[in-house]
Specification:
This protein is of the alpha/beta class. Helices cover 38% and strands 11% of the residues. It is built from 3 helices and 5 strands; from the N terminus they run αβββαβαβ. Helix 2 packs across helix 3. The longest helix is centred in the N-terminal third of the chain and has 25 residues.
Length: 137
């Protein structure tokens, strides 16, 4: 008497983990796009040629100076003492990375001076001033 083995079924791959990863990536990109749009919202940068390099250097600290003189880091307003402490922490994390200052073109010069002084006292090696391209080369 001959016994037959049951017919072998081909294993089907489980797609659930791949779908989970796809949804996680989608959520990640949506959240980071919202955060990037919020960081750029409400500030009209000065129009200057700036650097012609295409590569962008990393920035550890992004400081926004609004037209009314309010200074923000992320979503919260900061005073010069807080900005100095944030600059100190950013310099401790990565001493070679320079902060980026996004100052509105209508911002008072006194607010920009206070930001630069707080960054200097916080130990920042310098800062980069963000501009819009379109000026004369």
């Amino acid at each position: 008497m001959r016994f037959r083995s049951p017919p072998r079924r081909l294993a089907e791959p489980d797609m659930t983990p791949m779908i989970d990863v796809t949804f996680l990536l989608l959520i990640f990109f949506l959240v980071t796009a919202q955060m990037a749009a919020q960081a750029r919202k409400g500030v009209q940068l000065p129009v200057e040629p700036g650097e012609s390099r295409l590569e962008s250097a990393a920035s550890g600290l992004v400081v926004v100076v609004q037209a009314d003189g309010l200074v923000r880091v992320g979503d919260r307003g900061v005073d010069p003492a807080q900005l100095q402490q944030l600059a100190r922490e950013a310099a401790a994390r990565s001493p070679t990375v320079t902060p980026v200052v996004r100052a509105d073109r209508a911002a008072p010069a006194a607010a920009l001076n206070a930001v630069t002084e707080a960054l200097r006292q916080g130990g920042a090696p310098g800062f980069r001033l963000a501009t819009e391209s379109g000026g004369r080369p």
